[in-house]
């Protein structure tokens, strides 16, 4: 992996970040907020790293997926409560506070969709 700025991924990341903020602000309870937002967040994280790092897309996608799983399992362990930060809106929004297997599925599908697109458009960098 090498450091190299990629404007396309940076723009995608900015658009996804804006979308995630709008979802968080305006959709309090819906499929889009609870499932599609999780689908998008792994794509957002992947795009952020691809904005600065050129390398194997599969390894990066797998790393992002593992990171998302770790955060989700920290929710199961009630990390926010253990840290006594359940009243901190930013931390609760960032880390979440409710474990869901549906979130794990959304993360997995998000990375699978991302890697499928990467393979379609950037075959040499995927595997």
Commentary on this structure:
This protein is mainly alpha-helical. The chain has one domain. It contains 7 helices and 2 strands. It has a two-stranded antiparallel sheet with strand order 1-2. Helix 2 packs across helix 3, helix 2 crosses helix 6 and helix 3 runs antiparallel to helix 6.
Strand content: under 5%
Mean pLDDT over the full residue set: 91
Structural class: mainly alpha
Task: Profile the largest sheet.
Answer: 2 strands, antiparallel
Please tell me the total number of domains: 1
Helix content: over 70%
Question: What is the fold's blueprint, element by element?
Answer:
Layout: E1 2-3, H1 7-26, H2 31-50, E2 53-54, H3 57-76, H4 79-82, H5 89-95, H6 101-121, H7 123-126
Antiparallel strand pairs: 1-2
Helix pairs in contact: 1-2, 2-3, 2-6, 3-6
Keywords: Membrane, Transmembrane, Transmembrane helix
Organism: Mariniflexile ostreae
Protein name: DUF2809 domain-containing protein
Defining key terms:
127 residues, mainly alpha, two-stranded antiparallel sheet, globular, transmembrane
Overview in brief:
InterPro entries: DUF2809. The protein is mainly alpha-helical and 127 residues long. The protein has seven helices and two strands.
């Amino acid at each position: 992996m090498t450091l190299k700025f990629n404007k396309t991924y940076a723009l995608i990341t900015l658009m996804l970040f804006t979308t995630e903020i709008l979802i968080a602000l305006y959709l309090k309870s819906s499929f889009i907020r609870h499932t599609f937002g999780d689908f998008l967040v792994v794509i957002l994280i992947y795009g952020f790293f691809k904005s600065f790092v050129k390398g194997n897309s599969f390894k990066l996608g797998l790393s992002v997926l593992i990171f998302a799983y770790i955060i989700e399992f920290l929710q199961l362990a009630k990390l926010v409560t253990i840290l006594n930060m359940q009243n901190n809106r930013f931390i609760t929004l960032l880390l979440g506070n409710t474990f869901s297997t549906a979130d794990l599925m959304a993360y997995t599908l998000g990375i699978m969709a991302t890697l499928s697109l990467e393979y379609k458009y950037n075959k040499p960098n995927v595997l």
